[in-house]
Specification:
Bound molecules: magnesium ion
Shape: globular
Order of helices and strands: HHHHHHHHHH
Number of domains: 1
Number of strands: 0
Radius of gyration: 17 Å
CATH class: Mainly Alpha
CATH architecture: Orthogonal Bundle
Strand content: under 5%
Amino acid sequence: MKKPVPCKIVEQAARKKLEERGVTIKDIASIVFDLQRPYYPSIQMEECIESTDAVLCKREIQHAILVGIELDELAEKKQLSEPLQSLVESDEGLFGVDETIALGSVFGFGSIAVTTFGYLDKQKVGIIKELDERKPQIHTFLDDLVSSIAASAAARIAHRLRDRDENRRLDEIKKRETEDLIG
Ligand code: MG
């Protein structure tokens, strides 16, 4: 069996890809901020940045980022075979694989992440909308990946907030997080 790729390499590659495609942690954190503010009026941007960063530490998300962005880039270079090239290039509404890959990576963060992902898929706010308008670049997969990261980061904050309200200690919160999540 081939030696597994070190996690650090995968994480660095995923973060670099996001950056190269013009998406910063701050862009995603702004969406998280807007999502959570109605439920948590005193929320600070730093907390949204921290949560987005924590979500990016998850393997499932890193893998989804690598697969999705690779397909966007191949489509930009017209290197996919037909009819896949046309489906990805035109962001065909019924294609659905872009949403499926992104959705797969929110499950580790529970039902709030899943429903929030569905909301962002329909609403297309902030950088998600911008990506949609950055023609002639192709972001068929990336817009859904950003929705997935934002949805997971928002759900993570919602759960942490409850834990804090119930005066759980930070080490206890962290322990629960580690046990609840995969990757
Ligand atoms: Mg899409």
